[in-house]
Design brief:
Blueprint (H helix, E strand, L loop, with lengths): L1 H9 L3 H29 L3 H7 L11 H6 L3 H34 L6 H13 L4 H11 L7 H4 L6 H14 L2 H9 L4 H12 L1 H17 L2 H6 L8 H17 L1 H6 L1 H6 L3 H31 L6
Organism: Cohnella ginsengisoli
Protein name: Carbohydrate ABC transporter permease
Family: Belongs to the binding-protein-dependent transport system permease family.
Length: 303
């Protein structure tokens, strides 16, 4: 009887179930519909945007934004290749280096743990600034127009290291490490054969964070890349948008070519650029989704 009563007390009423499902559906639509609108606007003609604004049902469709964007498709493909290479290499190196940093400072028996933990927190609060960063990378390291200038600044993210450290502290029990040490395993073997396999959720989560960070980065390209052949796709998109805005704001050119200025895409081009830029991330995210929540929450509760 007590079990039956407990089940009835803990069960969700039909009305509550409907309200919860309706709320989750509304939240899901709030996340999905803006993406759908961006895609639709990218296929909308300028005349429709000027007359009706953004709409899920445009009066006139057009491919002019994508035609303008992919007019020189070789440049787009080359920029995609640069971004994919930088993102893949940067994600692998970043996750490995952050794990190598987070694991020692998660160990209570590591004598330099307080120093490196303080150093990590200090870099979260203070930075040298853009000028010193530019001088170090261009004059000190000589990395102007070098792909390493797109990799090195983003390899270590202090906040991500803290998440990994918390995961190691709450998930990897010291007795497990001690038993492996008694069996003759060294620190490197313990890290590779025990710690990393047990840390797959947080590693996948940090890999997702790093992938998004490297893929969306354009500011380092603005600082350190001068050769167009080495532009990543995000920075190339910004250059294209700036060129289009310059053409639209050029009064003399607009007077000489009024039809060109009228048909030249603006809002639709921005949305087409957003679609091109976010496409790979939308394809990658489902592979990390099952690890995402687990990697962030499993280290938050100990016991």
């Amino acid at each position: 009887m007590l079990r039956i009563a407990s089940r009835r007390e803990n069960s969700i009423s039909p009305l509550t179930n409907v309200v919860l499902n309706g709320g989750f559906i509304a939240l899901a639509l709030a996340c999905v519909l803006p993406v759908v609108l961006v895609i639709i606007v990218s296929f909308t003609h300028n005349d429709s945007l000027l007359s009706r604004g953004y709409s899920f049902f445009p009066a006139k469709w057009s491919l002019i934004a994508y035609e303008s964007l992919f007019k020189d498709y070789g440049t787009i493909l080359r920029a995609y290749g640069v971004s994919i290479g930088i993102t893949a290499a940067g994600t692998l190196l970043s996750v490995l280096l952050m794990a190598l940093y987070a694991y020692p400072i998660s160990r209570q028996d590591y004598p330099l743990r307080p120093f490196f933990t303080f150093f990590l927190f200090f870099t979260m609060l203070f930075s040298g600034g853009i000028v010193s960063k530019y001088i170090v990378f261009t004059q000190g390291l000589g990395l102007l127009d070098n792909y390493l200038s797109l990799l090195l600044p983003l390899l270590i993210v202090p906040f991500n290291v803290i998440i990994m450290r918390t995961f190691f502290q709450t998930t990897i029990h010291p007795a497990l490490i001690e038993s492996a040490r008694i069996d003759g395993a060294g620190e490197l073997r313990i890290f590779i054969r025990i710690v990393l396999p047990l840390s797959l959720p947080v590693m996948a989560t940090m890999a997702l964070f790093s992938t998004i960070l490297f893929w969306n980065d354009w500011f380092n390209a603005l600082l350190f890349i001068r050769e167009e052949d080495k532009y990543p796709v995000q920075f190339l998109m910004i250059r294209v948008l700036n060129d289009i805005q310059y053409l639209r704001e050029n009064v003399q050119l607009a007077a000489q070519n009024p039809e060109l200025m009228r048909d030249l895409p603006n809002e639709s081009l921005q949305m087409a650029m957003a679609v091109v830029g976010m496409g790979p991330i939308l394809l990658v995210y489902p592979f990390f989704q099952k690890y995402f929540v687990k990697g962030l929450t499993i280290g938050a509760v100990k016991g």
